[in-house]
Amino acid sequence: MVAIDIESEEGQREALRRMLTIRAFDTKAGDLFGDGELPGFVHLYIGEEAVAVGACSALEEEDYITSTHRGHGHCIAKGLEPEQMMSELYGKRDGYCNGKGGSMHIADVDAGMLGANGIVGAGPPLATGAALTSHLRGEDTVALAFFGDGAVAQGQIHEAINIAATWKLPAIFLVENNQFGEGTPVEKQHNVQHLSETAEAYNIPGFTVDGMDVTAVFEAVREARKRALNGEGPTFIEADTYRYRGHFEGDQQPYRTKEDVAIWQDRDAIESFKQKLIDAGTITEAEFDEMESEIHDRIEQAAADAKEAPYPDPSEAYEDMFSATVPEINEFARQMRADGGERQ
Amino acid sequence: MSTESRSGSGPAQTEEMTVREAIRLALREELERDEDVFLIGEDVGAFGGVFEVTGGLVEDFGEKRVRDTPISEAGFMGAAVGAAATGTRPVVEIMFADFMGVCSEQIINQMAKNRYMFGGKTEMPVTVRTTEGGGMGAASQHSGTLHTWFAHFPGVMAVAPGTPRAAKGLLKSAIRSNDPVFVFENKMIYEQKGEVPLDEDYTIPLGQAKVEREGEDVTVVATQRMVGESLDLAEELDGDISAEVIDLRSLYPLDTDTLVESVKKTGRLVIADESPLSYGTHAEVATRVMENAFYSLDAPVQRVGVADVHIPFSPELENEVLPHGDDVEAAIRRIM
User: Which of A80, B117, B174, B226 is deepest in the core (most CB within 10 A)?
Assistant: First the structure.
């Protein structure tokens, strides 16, 4: 279940719950990484929750998304379970990718999540392809690509949007402008004031929305989805947002000050949406606290369970390359074993 | 039209046709067999492909399934990957293998890695057809033989037919496979003729080489254009030297067993492939044989290929660098 009616009270509470889940998950992931619990590296989505939740809440379960290296928020918003995600971050067997992908490659194709992606700009062509499947099969589904402001400078994005626009494919291109491509500010990477202006080049609609406003993102994607299903082709949406943490955990962030971050934190998407719901009587402060506490407990439990979960067997490193085993892999794996013995 | 016996399945109809016609027949049959199969590439539709391989298909299957693309190799290769991950079976045409660099990201980091990175939970039924090889004065950016790159890179399979029969059977297996398969077509053998089975379910399993001619004195493992030239050479040498000629057909997976069995019989190995020699397809074939039949070798393994240069334009220069049957003969005579 991903689609919600954001005009209903229940839908609004669900949107809030999803944003809180993302923040709790990534806060915990950051803590675990800082404690040396997680291998590799992690890119946290904290601050940008309204974009993923606003967008995915306007999608149906059968719709597809492509993601980025900063993908935890997209996963949760598309309905993936934090428990299996946490296991993947730990490199455990019961993670979404059986421990082979990690933070940057979480995927669940059955849930319409075509993968977090370590290559900036690689997602939009995949979304164009998923939209092509929909077109070829006459399905009522769309594909939405999340990508960052840095990715807009990548050539393959242009190719993907041009193809989708020319073929009127049911795709949505959503750039999360979090103001920095790694450590370089957006104005040093692009010659346009708003990235959405690039849409003009493809003769498709382009909008900039407040990415700190979950309702604004939801409404923009809902409209884009309608257009896509009407055969009117893709829409380019820019969501202005901000990441509160470094590009990756451990980033010293010489490119900005704490005051810069505070300006955005003052308009925090979760705080402002919470206040809006409290003001409207949709949720009480006590109900909010209970929701937050439930989510906190769930994430703590997920982390504790993931820590205890079994690792994959080393022999699994040689599985999943192809739909069926090729002789080379078995033979070479056997040769490379120090004891020359058979792998089970 | 003639008939031939195939082991286990009785007589089967064959017809003489060119490599080009065999590929087109395979595409036509698979488009008819499975609605999820579609062609995507530059000028594959009304134009029929620059080498006319896809000619006539758009008339029968429509523009939806025989899709002309913008000149956006990265974009449509990526779209093919996304389409395959979501349930369709794209057959991509990259006009010249030399253009692979333009779309390599989508091949290397998406197509080849997704199944593995996702713990085996996605299928990737993409076929990529492309043309290779020098011989028509197309110069360095339209004549390269790059298949070693893809045979080397984990997560994709690679085949390179040397006969019309192999062209049909391998391409059909590629399209039916749930894994990414690259089909490398040498552009100089599109007109080469041979008998091709008409059976609509005729496929050649990926990972099987074929002994095209039996011999006793030397094994010539050849690919693409070098298969035909090696077969012609073997006929010329007949009575003097008995050469066994194997069409390698599948670069990855590689049929070690057939190679080893042959070398155990002949004791000599020549590898003829149009790749640059360093770190090439030749090296992998040689290593597989040496790992498994070292003590059967009576002479050093010989390689016939391109001497680590690009394919030049001038016919004088191009002819100089391309391997031919006489180079195979010289290699054989060095070790007899």
Answer: B226
Does the annotation mark B35 as catalytic?
no
Which chain A residue is nearest to residue B86, measuring alpha carbons? Answer: A130
Max alpha carbon distance in chain A (Å)?
A: 69
A31: nearest Cα among A242, A251, A250: A250
ipTM topping 0.85: yes
Domains and CATH numbers, chain B: 14-197 (3.40.50.970), 210-335 (3.40.50.920)
The span from the CA of B19 to the CA of B167, in Å, is: 6
- Nearest by CB to residue B82, choosing from A130, A159, A166, is A130
Q: Quick check: A342 pLDDT over 70?
A: no
Instruction: Burial-class residue A85 by CB neighbours within 10 Å (0-12, 13-18, 19+).
Output: buried
SS3 for chain A, per residue? CCCCCCCCHHHHHHHHHHHHHHHHHHHHHHHHHHCCCCCCCCCCCCCCHHHHHHHHCCCCCCCEEECCCCCHHHHHHCCCCHHHHHHHHHCCCCCCCCCCCCHHHCCEHHHCECCCCCCCCCHHHHHHHHHHHHHHHCCCCCEEEEEECHHHHCHHHHHHHHHHHHCCCCEEEEEEECCEECCEEHHHCCCCCCHHHHHHHHCCCEEEEECCCHHHHHHHHHHHHHHHHCCCCCEEEEEECCCCCCCCCCCCCCCCCHHHHHHHHCCCHHHHHHHHHHHHCCCCHHHHHHHHHHHHHHHHHHHHHHHHCCCCCHHHHHCCCCCCCCHHHHHHHHHHCCCCCCCC
User: What pLDDT sits at residue A28?
Assistant: 98
A159 phi, psi to nearest 5 deg: -60, -40
CB B167 within 8 A of CB B23: yes
As given in the structure block, the two tokens for residue A106 are 């979480």
Q: Does B232 touch chain A (CB under 8 A)?
A: no
pLDDT of residue A336: 87
Backbone angles phi, psi at A237, to 5 degrees: -120, 130
Query: Measured between beta carbons, which residues in chain A are less than 8 angstroms from residue B252?
Result: 326, 328
CB contacts, 8 Å: A96 with chain B:
118-119, 121
Q: Which of B21, B142, B318, B329 is catalytic?
A: B142
Residues from chain B contacting residue A326 (CB–CB below 8 Å): 157, 207, 252-253
What is the overall mean pLDDT for chain A? Answer: 95
Lay out the sheet containing B210-213: strands in order across: B210-213, B243-247, B218-222, B269-276, B302-306
Q: Write the DSSP assignment of B110-153 as a string of letters.
A: IITTHHHHTTT------EEEEEE--SSS--TTS----HHHHHHS
Cross-chain Cβ contact A159/B75 below 8 Å: yes
What is the mean pLDDT for each group of 10 consecutive residues in chain B (336 residues)? 44 92 98 98 96 97 98 98 98 97 97 98 97 97 97 98 98 98 98 98 98 98 98 98 98 98 98 96 98 97 98 97 98 98
A243 annotated active-site: yes
Domains in chain A: boundaries: 9-312, 313-344
Interface of B with A in 1-60 (CB under 8 A): 36, 38
Q: What fold does the segment set A9-312 form as a domain?
A: Rossmann fold (3.40.50)
Two tokens at B266?
Answer: 């002949």
